[in-house]
Write a structure and sequence with these properties.
Elements (H helix, E strand, L loop, with lengths): L19 E2 L2 H6 L10 E7 L16 E4 L19 E8 L8 H17 L5 E5 L12 H13 L4 E6 L7 H6 L2 E4 L8 H18 L3 E2 L3 E2 L16 H6 L1 H4 L24 E2 L1
């Protein structure tokens, strides 16, 4: 599915892309479009994987929460502030390590999709991700997860996700997601804010009948991990610049990802 991808190489330090949304007439009047209570599912899978490791992450390495247990995770607590109830499926997270064993990933995905199907019809899906997941024999595990989700919920359902700023964004992800955001800080002290940005975009668009779109472009620059910290330069300046763009009219969110060098990325590290 290729719906909203705009990809362009630009010089380092120049704004690469701005998420945009359609439905301008309705947005201008801010007339609520959704009647009744929207049905929004929540799920996801996350692990920061190094492809250089020979050790494989298996099922016993994951913390898997199913059903209402999803809301026991600290990063799920902000979901309780929304009027629209979030419908839980499955979340799976593993500590940083090697690539995920293929059978483990397929088992978790099948469980998630089965739970997702039972919640249909859905108006939105909120996915708790990371962006540096690596699975045996797969080039783009997050993209696979998104496409499998889209195949279940259909083209009209909005899908929003959040990433670590050390995530790798792919064409498949941009083509399949409707909205996404990423951490603004490293070390990550804005985890709760990140959750709320992703869910705010989703609930706002559902309420006002907006169809958000992602504009994505890559910057031909590579930073070592210690220089991507937002506590000192150049990371501090690079990420602080985002506040200017996030105040522009019609912009839901502007984020910047530096990528994760411990993974063979399916594409260039983007700023979107």
């Amino acid at each position: 599915m290729r719906r909203r991808l705009i990809l362009k190489m630009i010089p380092a330090g120049v704004l690469a892309g701005l998420p945009t949304f359609t439905g301008a007439a309705r947005a201008a009047g801010l007339v609520p479009a959704f009647r009744g209570t929207p049905r929004i599912a929540v799920g996801g899978i996350a692990s920061e994987c190094s492809t250089y490791s020979r050790i494989r992450a298996r099922m016993e390495d994951f913390t898997v929460l199913r059903g209402q247990d999803v809301f026991k995770a600290p990063l799920s607590l902000p979901l309780q502030r929304y009027e629209a109830p979030f419908l839980p499926t499955l979340t799976a997270s593993a500590p940083s390590g090697g690539p995920v064993e293929r059978q483990t990933y397929e088992t978790l995905k099948a469980d998630y999709l089965e739970r997702l199907k039972k919640l249909l019809p859905l108006d939105g899906v909120y996915l708790m991700m990371h962006g540096a997941l690596s699975v045996e024999g797969m080039d783009d595990a997050e993209g696979d997860w998104y496409e499998a989700t889209r195949a279940v919920v259909g083209p009209d359902c909005l899908i929003s996700a959040y990433y670590d700023l050390h995530g790798n964004l792919s064409r498949r992800a941009v083509d399949t997601l409707d909205a996404m955001t990423a951490y603004r800080t490293a070390p990550h002290v804005d985890r709760i804010e990140n959750v709320m940005r992703a869910t705010d975009m989703l609930t706002h668009c559902l309420r006002y009948g907006l169809r958000p779109g992602i504009v994505w472009a890559s910057i031909p620059a590579l930073l070592p991990g210690e220089q991507s910290s937002t506590e000192w330069e150049p990371g501090r300046r690079l990420w602080s610049d985002l506040s200017e763009y996030n105040r522009l009219p019609g912009i839901l969110d502007v984020s910047q990802l530096v990528g994760y060098v411990g993974r063979m990325s399916p594409g260039p590290r983007p700023r979107w």
